[in-house]
Amino acid sequence: MTRDTRKPPSNRTYEVGYGKPPVSGRFVKGVSGNPRGRPRKTPLVQPPPDTSVRDSFLEEAERVIQLREGDKVLQMTVADAVRRAEAVAALKGNTHAQRNFLEREARYKKALAEEIEAQQASWRRYIDRYGAPGTTIPKGLPHPEDVIIAPGKPVWFRFGVDPEDAEKHCLTFCRFRDAFLVQAEIDDRCHRRKRTPGYDHKVPVSLVLAICANLMLPNRHRHDQDTFGAIQLTHMSLRQSELEKRRHEALCAIGLNGARMFVMPLISKQEVVQMTNEIKRRHGIE
Q1: What is the rounded CA–CA span in Å between residue 89 and residue 96?
Q2: Which candidate in 24, 93, 207, 245 could, as Cys together with 184 as Cys, close a disulfide (CB 3.0–4.6 Å)?
Q3: C-alpha dihedral over 227, 228, 232, 234, to 10 degrees?
Q4: Is residue 128 exposed (0-12), middle (13-18) or buried (19+ Cβ within 10 Å)?
Q5: Is residue 130 within 8 Å of residue 144, measured between CB atoms?
Q6: What tens digit of pLDDT does each residue of 185-226 get?
Q7: Which residues pair with 68 in a beta bridge?
Q8: One-character DSSP codes across 261-272
Q9: Dihedral through CA 182, CA 184, CA 187, CA 193, nearest 10?
Q10: Which part of the chain is the DUF5681 domain (predicted)?
């Protein structure tokens, strides 16, 4: 049956019925019948991913085990052991377990790398925003200089994430550095006086400890090379009694009242370079 497309009569007193809605309920030309529009869908909140399985798997993959190879006992990670076993198992035609293990390891490592990259990007934005001199840092958040970002490693915080505790630890390290610097001059004089073997091309361990403590400090507390050298020259010009007095004051500042520091041995400059390079690498120092 064909629908009647004829318009209703123009008389507004016609009876309301099928195809004849009341005038008050008709759509007005140019006006939407749903002015608010379609309601937006409520976004689904994705729960945080459970990384416990991934983390435990990677921990197991990096666990060091001992393998006997002939008369030798080798130490290697589980992942390395599986890689070695894969070549042997391939000759026997059974590589399914090894392949599955290595594929899972690669997948988890990729996910972990992406997670670390996102974390580092977030903290880099934080450093860019609050790292400029004179910028007010929000209360309770770490100082930008205390945020350590190393390539491929999770972000960590120098002396902890709590800013007040971190500042206390920084001051303690400053006092240890100053005490070791004084002790280094005392040790150097003692070794030269006794003509300890190697005294002319080695340095006291106390100086190494002072250098390491200084490198672990953030820029706002760290001595630059010129300042460090100037302090050493000052100590070289002091009498022995004044050096010992300053050492006592430095130990008291740490809280080691009445403590005695003995002459520390010498260490080769090559070992010093290795230690300082490792600290620089870990703390992201150029």
Answers
A1: 9
A2: 207
A3: 20
A4: exposed
A5: yes
A6: 999 999 888 888 888 888 888 998 999 899 889 888 899 989
A7: 73
A8: -PPP-EEEHHHH
A9: -100
A10: 24-107
